[in-house]
Each structure stands twice: as structure tokens, then as C-alpha cells.
Amino acid sequence: MVAYVGRFAPSPTGVLHAGSLVAALASWLDARAAGGRWLVRIEDVDTPRCSPQAGETLLRQLADLGLQADEAPLWQSQHTAAYQQALDALVRSGLAYPCACSRADIAAAHAAAGRIPTRHHPLPYPGTCRIGLQGRAPRAWRFACEKYWSKWQLTQCGKARIASFSIANNLLTWIDRRLGMQTQNVPTEVGDFVLQRADGLWAYQLAVVVDDAAQGITHVVRGEDLADNTPRQMLLQAALGLPTPRYLHTPLVRGADGEKLSKQHGAPPLDTSAPLNALQRAAETLDLPPVPTQTRVADALAHWVMAWRALYNPTP
């Protein structure tokens, strides 16, 4: 049996806030409840927006809260050669192609076809460069999602991974440990998504898949806002011959306006000088029972590990 390995993977564009602590605590509890290992990965692949100082601050905040990782953190910015190897493998198998489209080009293609995007439902890539660059210079690399999707359904190659996900009736179906059954038609809802950006930086979808495999991650616990990314990552895992972790997506902390609390929406930095207070609020979001105000942090965490095990029964 494969041992449990979980992870928390923050982006160092700022420090921890109440929303990111929920994901950190949930992933730590899941690992501890399963008797597994918990890793931290600093997702600083978007180097213009990230800073080493913010990454070090995140690590100190986690330590203040008693959330200790079981090995040294992986920094994505030091792992870029692995992303290039993955892209090269997809290119060799015909599952990645260069794209010359700018955002304006994509918007113009949709407008010409009478398609109008909405705030929460962006339009999929229209496939302009799928048949070639037509003399234009390449800007980015995309995953040939539609091609792989068709191949999957034609050859029934998903049977070996039926425990992780399946594709039938043009829907990819997978089971989230908290949200239950989830479905998505990736070609029509997302399209051929970016693997490497026009500025040369690696896209989140490719980096997270490569890193989860490199770290031996068996269980991913993260915020609910990332649930719709999961089908894309599952397709990439299958295309690269990588294992698919089990997923659990946690509830979000929302601001007064109902929007997800995030650094972009002005979430205040987390005060870790009173760690139990911060942890107590995160535990409440996760529907975990409160502890007395004088409880030691270690005892509170042990209490929540038992409660988490009763809720989700994580196993390797």
C-alpha cells in the first residue's frame, strides 16, 4: 500500500491570511489523521509576482501555528527543468502545440463567432492554432486537450484509471472527498489550455502536476475554488503517465461582499502571535468543534485530528 503524502502549496505573493490558513490546517489534519507525511511546496513559479522573502515568512507563520512539515520545502522556481521535460514529452507525443494567439486575438475570434464571456464562465480557447501557426510567431504552448479527449474515448484508455476518474458521454467524472461527484466537459468548458505562457513562465496546471508526482503526493487538500482545475490536472497526469492523487476541496472563507477572501481582495495578513485564535477560526470554517481558550496549540491540533478523522477517514 502506498503511504499517505499530503502537501500545502502556497504562492508567496504575500503572507498567510484567514483563507489560506483553512487550506493549510485542513491539509495538515488530513495527513496527520492518516498517519502520513505532510509537505510544503512554495509555488513561486510566477517569479514576477512572488518573492523569496514572502516565502520565508509563510514558512515562519506555519511554524508559529504548530504546522510543521516533515521535510524541507520544495521551491518551484528551482524545479523548472522538470517542467521542460514534461512539456518535451507532451510535444513528442503530439499532445502539446505552439500557440501564437494573444488575449486580443482570442477575444476577437470569440466575438466574430458571436460568443460573449461572462465573469464566472470564461470562454474556452477557440482552437485557432490547433492546425498550425499560419506563419505567425509562437507565443505559448498549449495542451491538445480536445485531441487527447477524443483519443481517450476512442481507445477506452481510461479503464485503468476508473478509480480516479472516467470519461463518458463527453463528461469527465471524478469524486471529491468532500464535494462528492464532480463533472466537467474540459474541451467545451476550458479548451486547449496553456502549459507555458507567452512570457516563458510555466503555467500552474503543468507545474502542479509535475511537482505532485515528484513529491509522491497521494492526497491533495486545497480550497474549493481550485476544484474546477482538477479535471485539467487529471488529464495531464494521464497524458504524462503520472499517478492521480485523491482530492478534497475545502470551504472558502468569504468577505462581506461574498467574494473569496484572498490577497487580491485585500485579505489582511494573519496574526500568528496568538496562534490558537487563528487556528480556532480556521477550524470553525472546517466545521470542527471548538476548544477551550486556554488549550495548548498542540492539544488543540490533536483534538482536531481526531475530529477530522471522524469526518473524512483519510487512508493511504
From TrEMBL:
Q: Glutamyl/glutaminyl-tRNA synthetase class Ib catalytic domain: which residues?
A: 7-111, 184-266
Q: Name one GO molecular function term.
A: ATP binding
Motif mapping: 'HIGH' region: 10-20
Residues the entry annotates as binding Zn(2+): C99, C101, Y125, C129
Q: By its UniProt entry, which Pfam families does this protein fall under?
A: tRNA-synt_1c
- In terms of superkingdom, the source organism counts as Bacteria
What does the entry's cofactor note say about binding and number? Binds 1 zinc ion per subunit.
InterPro entries, A to Z: Glu-Q_tRNA(Asp)_Synthase (IPR022380), Glu/Gln-tRNA-synth (IPR000924), Glu/Gln-tRNA-synth_Ib_cat-dom (IPR020058), GluQ/Sye (IPR049940), Rossmann-like_a/b/a_fold (IPR014729)
PANTHER family annotated for this entry? GLUTAMATE--TRNA LIGASE, GLUTAMYL-Q TRNA(ASP) SYNTHETASE
Task: Name the NCBIfam families on file.
Answer: PRK05710.1-2, PRK05710.1-3, PRK05710.1-4, queuosine_YadB
Q: What is this protein identified as?
A: Glutamyl-Q tRNA(Asp) synthetase
Query: Lineage of the source organism?
Result: Bacteria, Pseudomonadati, Pseudomonadota, Betaproteobacteria, Burkholderiales
